[in-house]
């Protein structure tokens, strides 16, 4: 089962910024945390490559364009949990707003 997200440039870059904090998390012996971290690394790589691609070819006319990102169900489920956990790592209110919109979208599609 796959989940499709349609996100604009700002949302992809905001999620990428927040997912970069997953590399700073402390090591744990808890299996649940290790599963989140494992899936989180894959998601961070996916969003990082997409964000770099968008930055390279960004133009003024592309700012409102939606980009499709397809995630497997378990990736979408983990992304929602990881974004909720990492939400407090940023003080930027715009990033929080964009990430909150992605969390809401994920929550609706996973229900």
Task: List descriptors.
mainly alpha, 4 helices, 111 residues, globular, 11% strand, two-stranded antiparallel sheet
Briefly summarize what is shown.
By secondary structure, the chain is mainly alpha-helical. 62% of the residues lie in helices and 11% in strands.
Q: Mind sketching the topology for me?
A:
Layout: E1 2-7, H1 9-19, H2 31-56, E2 67-72, H3 73-86, H4 93-110
Antiparallel strand pairs: 1-2
Describe the structure.
This protein has a two-stranded antiparallel sheet. The protein has 111 residues and is mostly helical. The chain is 62% helix and 11% strand. It has one domain. Helix 1 crosses helix 2 (31-56), helix 1 crosses helix 4 (93-110) and helix 2 (31-56) crosses helix 3.
- Relative strand content: 5-15%
**How many strands?**
2
Secondary-structure-based class equals: mainly alpha
Biggest sheet: strands, sense, closure? Answer: 2 strands, antiparallel
The span between the termini is 13 Å
Summarize the helix and strand pattern as letters: EHHEHH
- Count of the separate structural domains: 1
User: Can you tell me the overall shape?
Assistant: globular
The tally of helices reads 4
Q: List low-confidence stretches.
A: none
The residue-averaged pLDDT reads 91
Helix percentage: 55-70%
Q: What is the C-alpha radius of gyration, as a whole number of Å?
A: 14 Å
Strand order of the largest sheet: 1-2
């Amino acid at each position: 089962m796959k989940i499709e997200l349609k996100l604009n440039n700002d949302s992809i870059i905001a999620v990428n910024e927040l997912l970069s904090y997953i590399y700073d998390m402390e090591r744990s012996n808890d299996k649940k945390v290790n599963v989140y971290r494992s899936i989180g690394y894959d998601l961070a790589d996916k969003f990082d490559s997409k964000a770099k691609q968008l930055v390279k070819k960004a133009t003024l006319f592309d700012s409102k364009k939606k980009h499709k990102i397809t995630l497997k169900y378990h990736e979408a489920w983990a992304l929602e949990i990881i974004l909720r956990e990492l939400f407090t790592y940023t003080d930027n209110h715009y990033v929080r707003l964009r990430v909150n919109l992605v969390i809401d979208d994920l929550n609706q599609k996973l229900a």
